[in-house]
Design goal:
Number of helices: 5
Order of helices and strands: HHHHH
Structural class: mainly alpha
Mean pLDDT: 95
Strand content: under 5%
Helix content: over 70%
Number of strands: 0
């Protein structure tokens, strides 16, 4: 069986977006560290020094870290679906919807960071991921 490229494209897109957030994190964090004249201390507890940076700088790093949490499940489910999909069009639409919601979540968290909106974006993206998981269960169990 030939893997579905339509399902692998959103996987690559979300990985690419993660690198965009990585770049955005560093182009804001490094100047903020320099402006604050922070002395980097390897013995400081994890996150303590970065907590002194302005919130709008920390938001980018927070989002970058979030892209290594639930999206790891997306990668696994999307790759399974790429291998065994029963409905590539629906599965690709769900995958692209998930990616779009995660990008919107990133942009919102990195700029405005209103928690209620972030939660709504996260919740809806979680529902999309749950739908993808159901599709994967049906594909591998039937």
């Amino acid at each position: 069986m030939q893997p579905s490229l339509e399902l692998l494209r959103p996987v690559v897109a979300l990985v690419t977006w993660t690198f965009v957030m990585w770049g955005w994190m560093y182009v804001t964090r490094i100047p903020a560290i320099q402006r604050s004249r922070m002395k980097l201390d390897p013995t400081a507890p994890r996150g303590e020094q970065m907590a002194s940076l302005p919130p709008d700088v920390r938001w980018k790093a927070d989002n970058y870290n979030h892209l290594f949490e639930q999206p790891t499940l997306f990668y696994a489910v999307a790759i399974v679906l790429a291998l065994v999909t029963r409905d590539a069009d629906t599965d690709a639409m769900l995958a692209w919807t998930y990616v779009g919601l995660r990008v919107a979540h990133s942009l919102f968290q990195a700029t405005i960071n209103k928690i209620e909106v972030r939660f709504a974006l996260f919740f809806v993206s979680s529902l999309v991921l749950a739908a993808m998981t159901v599709q994967a269960v049906l594909a591998v169990m039937t």
